[in-house]
């Protein structure tokens, strides 16, 4: 949701902005966040009702950050019932040049075709993960591999090796073709491939090999418009008027004390076992570094906080401005689940990463930042699949204090500067791509 709103800002900041209108569709419970995000823009915001009484989905849930990952499929399927309201609102608009649709909302392709305008897919993944996934499934690369951890080279990119455990569990099982999750992915991929373009939240210079491959081997035209986290957002306008949150005051204190801080966060949808959470906590304790850890719930007991004392701060069940944290002078490392938005924010903030991928395409994102960009180190799980405290403590200390950490910091600083230049008005590569997109889909900039 956040990068989609940043994309709306980017469109409205274009030199044709006087002739461009942007309409954002959301749902009633998500509307306040969208309104706040775009409050100083001329974007129009329309909310359409989310379906009631969806089996398994608790009442009042209209966003995946309040939903266990296990309920993602029925939640996403339920959005199909919003199509009639969506199309009725679209028909009330004076003119639509093109639609930018979340890649998970496969049914919006039907709406765009019915009403006669192009649909462009917005995909949260980077280009590398996308083409690696395509190669693995098109070549049935891992179908006959029994081991979950045996590395297999990707045919188009033989220097990259993938393992079964890097992909969604049971995806290579023959029964998966009847699985609701697999069917949903199939619908989404089919509608994506039949659309008129795809927007990646990345920049040409970050993954040139993969973007070039995509352009040469896919019919769907890619538009690289990132890093969207560098687009001015609403927080930058309002932050001076707000009282500093407790976590920002704590970071300020650490900065004033000359202490470096590790930021720890695993995303809003991560499902982590209690055993793994305890190993992470003990690893952070043993590392002796200062850390700010954003967690869900109270599975990490208060006794842990008492033991680490002033060296650590826990933020529980509270939304934090991750970009502001990563930009803080005291933050010198990020222990991350490797969601692409988080990685882009870390790179743009010039903060090296300790990769701890958990689900979805996150292991492939880890391959990109660890092996290709060399801005991250990766934790290694024990044979039973849990990353142990000793591994976490060792890798954290190396990231924050060791020679490897210094090397990663030099690399990420170079990429961070490159990323910021990509959106420089009129000259940056992503800005030029935005020019081309507007010219291709909007006649006379309308």
Your description of this structure?
The protein has two domains: 2-232 and 423-445, Rossmann fold, CATH 3.40.50.2000; 245-419, Rossmann fold (3-Layer(aba) Sandwich), CATH 3.40.50. The protein is of the alpha/beta class and 446 residues long. The chain has helices spanning 2-12, 31-37, 72-78, 83-92, 108-115, 127-138, 180-193, 208-217, 234-238, 246-256, 274-287, 302-308, 322-327, 340-348, 362-372, 389-401, 403-422, 429-441, and strands at residues 23-26, 44-47, 99-102, 119-123, 152-154, 157-162, 197-200, 222-224, 261-265, 290-295, 312-316, 331-336, 353-355, 376-378. It contains 18 helices and 14 strands. The strands form four sheets. It has a six-stranded parallel sheet, with helices on both faces. Strands 3-4-7-8 form a four-stranded parallel sheet. It starts with a helix and ends in a 5-residue tail after the last helix. Helix content is 42%, strand content 14%. Residues 1-17 form the signal peptide. GO terms for molecular function: UDP-glucosyltransferase activity.
Q: How does the SSE layout of this entry go?
A:
Elements: H1 2-12, E1 23-26, H2 31-37, E2 44-47, H3 72-78, H4 83-92, E3 99-102, H5 108-115, E4 119-123, H6 127-138, E5 152-154, E6 157-162, H7 180-193, E7 197-200, H8 208-217, E8 222-224, H9 234-238, H10 246-256, E9 261-265, H11 274-287, E10 290-295, H12 302-308, E11 312-316, H13 322-327, E12 331-336, H14 340-348, E13 353-355, H15 362-372, E14 376-378, H16 389-401, H17 403-422, H18 429-441
Parallel strand pairs: 1-2, 3-4, 4-7, 7-8, 9-10, 9-12, 10-11, 12-13, 13-14
Antiparallel strand pairs: 5-6
Helix pairs in contact: 11-16, 16-17
Enzyme class: transferase
Signal peptide: 1-17
GO molecular function, one term: UDP-glucosyltransferase activity
